[in-house]
Design goal:
CATH superfamily of one domain: RRM (RNA recognition motif) domain
Largest sheet: 6 strands, antiparallel
CATH topology of one domain: Alpha-Beta Plaits
CATH class of one domain: Alpha Beta
Helix content: 10-25%
Low-confidence stretches: 218-294
Order of helices and strands: EEHEEHEEEEHEEHEEEEHEE
Strand order of the largest sheet: 1-9-10-8-12-11
Shape: elongated
CATH architecture of one domain: 2-Layer Sandwich
Structural class: alpha+beta
């Protein structure tokens, strides 16, 4: 694994077009006091982020009676405002309540572990040759200011010869360790797919696979992953199988923690569960409805 020093001063900052989209500007807010007014929440985050809040919504407990707390979403004028607020999360207190904030996961993001907290990322579909840890480091350094997080290491998995010695050829996937969970959240959205070395690269959070029996493990080559992890016929397969058990499976559903369960923009109402499983469209199997503010 190559430990690579961040050299921000040596590279020109690149502004990816995706940073101007709503999905990069939205933040989840949990722990809101029930008596907090919508406009009050907006003004609070404008003062914290030193900029404009373009949209906001508060989901109150009278609408979601099975949940004790109130949560919501705030959309900022720029993606960088989200970064600034996340740096101040320890000081986010409104109406005597500590707010729980995270970059919101797009509701169409069905990748493995999209809502889980981790500092480890999985990168796939890399070129076999002419692609090194240093090349990827330069690419990401040019798109992320060290103020908001850094890449601590990059490991590309290499093929081995018959004697077990590493070759120059990449297997096509690898791992990236970053300095914070917030950095991983951002990269998993910003670089979910991107062009590099003439290929369409995929990046997601690295999480343990989910077996058909519901247990979690590291997975094996082509074995034991969730059905949603399977790839197209004749293709590389899902991350668990096609990449030798790396990458992670698809869990049934994920929450932001502290009791604020949010399934890709859909909030199931009472009775909307059947064994706790979610379908691939982002809704819950069963008769319950969904609450989708966006």
């Amino acid at each position: 694994m190559a430990e690579i020093e961040n050299n921000e001063e040596k590279c020109e900052y690149v502004h990816d077009p995706i940073l101007d989209t709503e999905e990069m500007k939205k933040m989840f807010v949990g722990g809101i006091a029930p008596d907090t007014k919508d406009e009050e929440l907006k003004e609070f985050f404008e003062s914290i982020g030193n900029g404009k809040v373009t949209d906001h919504v508060v989901i109150r407990k009278d609408q979601m009676s099975e949940k004790k707390s109130v949560f919501g979403f705030v959309t900022f004028e720029t993606s960088e405002m989200v970064d600034e607020v996340l740096l101040k999360r320890k000081d986010l207190n409104l109406n005597n309540r500590s707010l729980d904030v995270n970059r919101a996961v797009p509701k169409n993001n069905t990748s493995a572990g999209a809502h889980e907290k981790t500092k480890k990322l999985f990168i796939a579909n890399l070129p076999k040759f002419d692609c090194s840890e240093q090349d990827l480091q330069q690419y990401f350094d040019a798109r992320h200011k060290s103020k908001y997080g850094t890449i601590e290491s990059i490991q590309l998995i290499k093929r081995k010869d018959e004697q077990g010695n590493k070759m120059e050829e990449n297997k096509g996937f690898g791992f990236i360790m970053v300095s914070s969970e917030d950095m991983a959240d951002k990269m998993a959205i910003q670089h979910a797919t991107f062009e590099f070395g003439g290929r369409r690269i995929e990046l997601k959070k690295s999480v343990p696979t989910v077996t058909e029996g519901g247990g979690r493990g590291r997975g094996g080559r082509g074995g034991g992953s969730h059905p949603m992890n399977a790839g197209p016929a004749g293709g590389t397969g899902g991350y668990s199988g096609g990449y030798g058990g790396y990458g992670g499976g698809y869990g049934d559903w994920y929450g932001y923690g502290n009791g604020y369960d949010y399934y890709y923009g859909a909030y199931p109402s009472r009775g909307g569960y059947r064994g706790g499983h979610a379908d691939a469209r982002g809704g819950q199997r069963g008769g319950g409805g969904r609450y989708a503010p966006y």
